[in-house]
Amino acid sequence: MSRVLPGRRWRPAALGGAVLALLAGFLVVTGVTAAAADPLISQGRPATASSVENAGTPAAAAVDGNTGTRWSSTFSVPQWVQVDLGTTATVSRVVLNWEAAYATAFTVQTSANGTTWATVHTTTNGTGGVQDLTVTGSGRYVRVNATAKATGYGVSLWEFQVYGSTGATGGCGTTNAAQGRPATASSTQSAVFPASAAVDGSTGTRWSSAAADPQWLSVDLGSTQSICGVTLQWEAAYGRAFQVQTSTDNATWTSIYSTTTGTGGTQVLTVTGSGRYVRVYGTARGTAYGYSLWEFQIRTGSGGPTNPPTDPPPTDPPPGGTVRLLSYNKPAVASTSQNDGACWECTPARAFDNDPASRWATAANTGWVDPGWIYVDLGATAGITQVVLQWDPAFARSYQIQVSPNASTWTTIYSTTTGAGFKETLNVTGTGRYVRMYGTARSSTYGYSLWEFKVYGTGGNPTAPPAMPPDPTFPANRLVWSDEFNGPAGSKPDASKWTIDPGTGQNNEIQYYTNNNNANMDGAGSLVIEARRETAGGRDYTSHRMNTGNKFHVQYGRIEARVKVPKGNGLWPAFWMMGADFLTGRPWPYNGEIDIMEVLGRNTLEGYSTLHAPAYNGGAGYGQKYPAPGGVDLANDYHVWAVEWDSKGMTFKLDGTTVFVASKATVEATRGPWVFDHPFYVILNLAVGGDFPGPVDGTTPFPSRMLVDYVRVYQN
After folding, report:
1. Helix (H, G, I), strand (E, B), or coil: what is residue 379?
2. Please, is 287 exposed, middle or buried when counting C-beta atoms within 10 Å of its C-beta (0-12, 13-18, 19+)?
3. Is 560 part of the annotated catalytic residue set?
4. pTM for this structure?
5. Which of 327, 365, 573, 648 lies 20 to 30 angstroms, CA to CA, from 62?
6. Residue 598 catalytic?
7. Which tens digit of pLDDT belongs to each residue from 646-678?
8. Exactly one of 424, 593, 606, 644 is catalytic; which is it?
């Protein structure tokens, strides 16, 4: 939930010494959203409207897949917003996610030409909120035409979703095959705008290039695939002339689309080609700035994978009984190191502590220069077979791996001028007591920074790192902890299992969490967490939050809860976990956060599962928004949310259906270090208001109740 418990303070993470403010919002993914039968066909398509309230509420915001952006009209009726599906489609379902300024009377219409309209739904008693409409019709254009409004403002939609099927796709899938895949670029404006931001599924992060021509952005799909569609969501700095190109080897390129009259905005392109690599190659900018993409999406002829493919990474550590991690907790020396408010105690030792949430960085005052270096003393002569570098966004574009018998005379065993950052696993051959990363060209104006620098081989004088617990085998079936909430009506949560956590929330939430006043057993086998409109702690609303900190911690297994969520604008139920080292002083997000379930009361047809870490958190967290399986309303009954977690990653499930997969290898290769291989504790809470769920209003029911049938943890 990207929230910090009362009494704890946290410091924003830094990128190569530059402070990056941590966002309090959440990732909204544009990749996978589907109806029970037909796919979503409107997302990212061109949209127009009768009017807009201002430049910050354009028509495109209603079809961008982001429930934090909206279209809003001027303060009169009639008003309309329409989407161009690109080809004639059979429309089966329309979902309207209204902002507080909703329409009481409106029609949903289809058209073949954008001029003559046929009505497929009409109402004169619209209630706002989320309206899920079953319709029957066909057309290239679909619009909502509002004729009466509920407030003194105009009409406003967070999202306008059209589901159906098109006859012109020719088997082209709807899944974004580029999401989460490794991406590279000709340049970046700064470390804040990396190539990976264009394929992370978040329309709140972007890649931005240097202000020169030409520039390119490339994504590796992992295998050769048939490419049939590309969507480019440009920032204001767009490409006037550009090509979309494919390659099988990342060297020879074939153009499958070309234009000299690009207009920016969202461009949905139908293309034909094949390749493992796909890139946008810009030759003329639309502005004086560089090129910038919020999202670069690719659709494949096979429909694309349900989850991004993950190439098998080089074995880490390498195979062989005599090969060991040689660098753990060994003495280290660097050209400079940073120790200030932006990167506290970022000393050389941090790169060798086997802790992916701590890092070394060169000093901001003297170290943001070339060359920059760091080396480790292995304690004795060793045979080096592999080096693993987990870079911060301040990475080396050109560097060498060197070995030495005396830390004075160095021999190069690996060299590159095309370093891509993130995780680089290098199979090398060399002999020496000392191993050095020697950077000669930085990727940005910042310095050099490594979360982890691991050296594997034989010999040396290694110290074994702490042993990890064994991976569970799923389905795990040994119950190791649970609370069934079977107490008598009115009884409180079991104090031997739960710590009550009173106080105010984060993210501009408006509730006060009371000291156990808002939680009771219902006598029928459920815990009731109740949000009320009442004054306490200086707030006008109260609710409840509790956790298992210092009473139950777990690393790996299946963690699940059966929950019935409340419906209503501004309500925010959650089932989540925090790294247990938070309780001993490590600040968020360095401890890691696992959001197993979040639902927004304004739209209980979908849920969220998200990971937060130093390199991806808040609005840039690594996660997924997904529809409820079968299109059900999650507020109408109990549902089981679960995460199956081991050393290779996490699989999130809702009622047994996989809704999101977080592969450790993919995250390390595309987003940053994986900080989830340590104990976590469980949290349940119901928040009110704030940046993510939005405000409560006159339709929000109080009291509102989150019902928890059980929480269970399984291992083998």
Report:
1. strand
2. middle
3. no
4. 0.63
5. 573
6. yes
7. 999 999 999 999 999 999 998 998 899 999 999
8. 593
